[in-house]
């Protein structure tokens, strides 16, 4: 701060006015006399390069005072910015500044007499953690935030992986359960089928005790439904057992003789009606051993193999007519259904 050159003092004349000074119309002793001083351009020109404030030992002058005030303002603004942006306060270290009043008055101020600015803007957390500057604190916060985000991502990924694993395990368990159920169902079905076959075999075995083949020492020569000119209908209506003439003919099951005698192209024929109404026809016999109304049991002899009627050789022609129907069924299938294997 510049100042004017000191005004020259008026010359002192001893003994003038008896040592009295004037004031408000009278003289006062011990103050005077004075000369009238008119300031000139030369007398009021500022002295360049000279200041009233003496230089401090810390190398600070008026510019230091301005710098200190600017630093205080900057620190205050930095604190406000930190509060607004959420960033940690900046630690600033400055040399201790003298009292501003002392700088203006030009008096020497002892070092350290003013309040130091070295801890302005510092928080207790920053001081405890030993943060050196705002950049280090910001880096630490960014790294901490990045670590938290990474932990969140890893936790989410782990949760998704666990959910996927649980879903896969559940799907695998459901698939295994379905496969087990399918295998169990297949095994059950197979067991049921085997049980049914076994039961059928037992039934047929029991029936086989009740049924028997019509003759023995035979050869199957013609089957049911076989086409040919030998039969008036155009196809074969029964099953032929070729055997030597005189071979015994047996009752396949217990029943009653309902017909016995000559029947045209059938030759000598016997009809056995079973208890369920099924008729068994025996044709081309050489002889008949039973009479109408006779009761017979399984295996009883009812006649002998011959070659009577429309034949080309000795054989037994057998037909099966359920419930006495005109059209017969396959005797081979019927016999197998009774547990017999022709």
TrEMBL record:
Keywords on record: Coiled coil, Hydrolase
Record-listed E.C. numbers: 3.4.24.-
Transmembrane segments: none
The M23ase beta-sheet core domain, residue ranges: 235-325
The protein's enzyme class: hydrolase
Pfam short name (any one): Peptidase_M23
Coiled-coil ranges (or none): 143-210
A GO MF label: hydrolase activity
Protein name: M23 family metallopeptidase
């Amino acid at each position: 701060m510049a100042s004017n050159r000191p005004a020259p003092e008026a010359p002192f004349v001893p003994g003038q006015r008896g040592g009295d000074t004037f004031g408000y119309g009278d003289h006062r002793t011990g103050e005077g006399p004075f000369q009238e001083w008119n300031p000139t351009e030369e007398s009021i020109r500022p002295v360049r390069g000279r200041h009233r404030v003496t230089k401090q030992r810390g190398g600070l002058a008026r510019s230091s005072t301005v710098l200190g005030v600017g630093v205080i303002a900057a620190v205050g603004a930095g604190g406000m910015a930190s509060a607004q942006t959420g960033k940690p306060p900046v630690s600033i270290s400055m040399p201790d500044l003298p009292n501003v009043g002392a700088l203006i008055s030009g008096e020497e101020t002892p070092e350290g007499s003013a309040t130091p600015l070295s801890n302005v803007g510092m928080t207790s957390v920053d001081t405890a953690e030993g943060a050196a500057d705002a950049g280090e604190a910001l880096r630490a916060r960014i790294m901490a935030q990045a670590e938290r985000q990474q932990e969140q991502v890893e936790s989410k990924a782990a949760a998704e992986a666990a959910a996927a694993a649980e879903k896969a395990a559940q799907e695998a368990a459901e698939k295994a359960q379905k496969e087990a159920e399918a295998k169990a169902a297949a095994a059950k079905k197979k067991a049921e089928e085997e049980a049914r076959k076994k039961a059928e075999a037992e039934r047929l075995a029991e029936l086989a005790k009740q049924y028997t083949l019509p003759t023995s020492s035979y050869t199957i020569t013609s089957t049911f439904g076989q086409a040919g000119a030998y039969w008036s209908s155009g196809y074969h209506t029964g099953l032929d057992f070729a055997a030597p003439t005189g071979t015994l003919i047996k009752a396949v099951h217990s029943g009653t003789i309902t017909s016995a005698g000559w029947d045209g192209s059938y030759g000598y024929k016997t009809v056995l009606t079973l208890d369920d109404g099924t008729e068994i026809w025996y044709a081309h016999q050489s002889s008949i051993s039973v009479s109408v109304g006779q009761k017979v049991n399984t295996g009883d002899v009812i006649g002998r193999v011959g070659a009577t009627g429309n034949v080309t050789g000795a054989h037994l022609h057998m037909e099966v007519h359920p419930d006495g129907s005109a059209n017969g069924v396959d005797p081979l299938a019927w016999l197998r259904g009774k547990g017999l294997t022709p």
